[in-house]
What does this fold into?
Amino acid sequence: MKVLITGGAGYIGSTICWALKDHGHTPIILDSLVTGREEFARDHIFYQGDIGDPEIVSKVFEDHPDIFATIHCAALIVVPESVEKPYEYYRENVVKSMHFFYQLAQLGYPRLVFSSSAAIYDVVPGFMVTEESPLKPTSPYSRTKYMMEMVLEDFTQAYPLQGIALRYFNPIGADPQLRSGMHIETPSHILGKLVEVAQGVAPVFNITGTDWPTRDGTGIRDYIHVWDLASAHIKAVEKFDQVIAEDGNTARQYAVINLGTGQGVTVRELVDAFERVIGHPIEKQEKSPRPGDVAGAYANANKALALLGWKAEKSIDEGIRDALRWGEIRDQVLDYN
It folds into this structure.
């Protein structure tokens, strides 16, 4: 089947494209390349354009009327940057997505898988969250994801649209075949920063926040291999109609699913695992939390297993090794000049 991936030239989107292709499907990429990489789109059907441009969106569907579903990954995603630039984040993530969702409904392409975020959860006792746990987004970035979930749910009840919101926890690693990986030249993700220190690009790793109410004072997360994350999208597309039928809300058109490993790992524990994989310690120092940081959460992933038949298979060590392998070849794949 054909699947449209907005933001398909980004880190997660490009990995989803390769997973789709490996499963016999045809990915079609729509990406503005504001943050995505053209190198990631070269082996796929690719349209360079903005989701907020109705003409390019219409052209994609005119050229490929047999698109089965859309996976919406296009978004700005850096939490500290969202604090500095909330206008840009609300414009790109909310306003443009809202127009895009409405256009999908008007064009008659109802199936939409939305890339949401575990950053919308409130901190709960024990830190494990289910899809019914309380929500409390604390940064402009996370609020854009929360707002778009609400918009999508409202749209599915008013228009011919069906939505599955996948709440991502913390992706790490790269495509195991090294066809794509983390592409931001100065990464904000924790593993990207660790790799920079290991490669000598950065002198020290900053542990931001050491007084959270966790077992060692550092933030707790659920680190999921990006290939496992991509594989869940394949299940969501292939089982889309079944998921909506089994778990839709009262209008039976909308569902929410956590995508995580079900294991909570602190920042210190991730650093320990990283040092174990590389075989030596790295320089590190403690810093204050960044703007928008929270203690964190990890997933109860039972719903993903029940509805998608999916669970995370790859370990943190595999994610670290794949990130390191990608880091060794990234500059050969991507042209930063």
